[in-house]
Predict the structure.
Amino acid sequence: MNPEAISVIIPTKNRPADLENVVASLLVQTKPPIELLIVDQSEDEESRLRIERLLAAAQRHPQPLALALRYLRVPFVSGGAAARNLAMDLAQGGIWLFLDDDVVLEPEFLAALCAAYRAHPEAVGISGVVTNYARPPWLYRCWRALFARGCFHDDRQGVYWRAQQARRGPVRRVTRLGCGLMSVRAAAVGRVRFDENLTGVCDGEDVDFCSRLGQDAVLLMTPAARLTHCQSAIGRERDHPLRRQVRSDAYLYRRNWRRRRGARLGFAWLRLGYALAALAASLRRGTWAPWRALHAGLADARHIAVRGASSVSVAATVRAPGPTP
């Protein structure tokens, strides 16, 4: 298999128009993928019908793409983690590119990824950049800089905020990639998979996946691979945003970082920051909703950790050898 052959993996649910847009942007890539794996959790067949019509029209082009479609409709599967795992077990390319179903790629996206892999053969994973993320308010940036330290620092965000100025900038090493636009070398990933205890809409699955690739794994972002995130309103979680953010950080700490040097102190410091932010927001708005969201996020992370520990115990029991006759 050509190590530069790209398998594109897209989980989707009830977003036929968004899915059609991202697939249309894949069909005009200057370096096309060899296969497209769509894992559809939708309640009906509309997404499948739209994609089949789109690909049929592309095949009538004078120079049709040799693109294999693997369309899995699995409405019983919950969440992007399980959907991506299904596709990873089937993918044939040397590079696996994970995309959200509500993005639109620039025509050079895949070519830029391959160029980065050629220039950096040590890379385990490479991500592009989202070009339309707004720089958050200065107060939030100050809060993150003060309280999100060490392993809780997200070094992707600064790259996104400067995406318009950095089109021809250098490839940058980071500690994590976003699963809405990240790629990995299949050979380097091996049997590492996304955590299926994260069901529904659950942040942190991408950072967890990258963490389990190992602290020495070389992860890069290339500003030459660019896309727009259209942020579909369909399927978005309606919980308080603080709950999602707290759940993600607490889950990642419990799952990956609690044994790292300084992580316990870093998590305590981060929780203090969250508590101050939730208290200030509650007093300012005259409602205890932010404070309740903080505690709900911490509780969510504990429940996910317990569920994960239980699944590991069951798997170990299943694998354990029986008594010797």
Observations:
- Strands lie at 6-12, 35-40, 68-73, 95-99, 103-105, 123-130, 172-174, 181-185, 218-229.
- The chain has two domains: 6-229, 241-315.
- Residues 289-319 form the longest helix (31 residues).
